[in-house]
Amino acid sequence: MTTQFKTERATQNLFIALIAVCYGATLTPLHAQGPGAAKARAQYQVSDLPGLGGTSNGGNSINDQTWVSGYARLPDRNRHAALWRNSLLTDLFTLGGPNSSVTWNVKNTAGIIIGRYLANRRSGASRRGLE
Questions:
Q1: How far apart are CA 46 and CA 126, in angstroms?
Q2: Higher-pLDDT residue of 12, 124
Q3: Cα separation of 60 and 71, whole Å?
Q4: What letter does residue 108 receive in the DSSP assignment?
Q5: pLDDT bucket at 45, cuts 50 / 70 / 90
Q6: E-strand spans in the chain?
Q7: Which pTM value belongs to this model?
Q8: Are the CB atoms for 79 and 94 separated by under 8 Å?
Q9: Is the CB of residue 70 less than 8 Å from the CB of residue 82?
Q10: Could you give the angle at the alpha carbon of 106 between the alpha carbons of 104 and 107, nearest 5°?
């Protein structure tokens, strides 16, 4: 009788331990997130950036006024610096060479955009800021 009692008692303890482990595994992810994590949600909006008829375009920066700056490709595969305001594209063209782009983050709200362009070797032009 004593052996049977010990076996039943060990089975009960094992069952209780298994329930405790399963219960703890269920609550651990909820506790790890904290009380504020369930309320916080990412606020963003995905927008289409219209192009200049080429194969690709892309935004490299966005500021607090939701201006997106980057580049847009032309059908001839050249790149032009581009600015999207309210989903409307502004072609910033180049300064004499075939390509330009806004490659750095622009986090100001004054409307200043810094970019780069590929100079035409015959023109003698160099890099300048685009305003």
A1: 36
A2: 12
A3: 8
A4: -
A5: confident
A6: 57-62, 68-73, 79-85, 88-91, 99-101, 116-118
A7: 0.58
A8: no
A9: yes
A10: 140
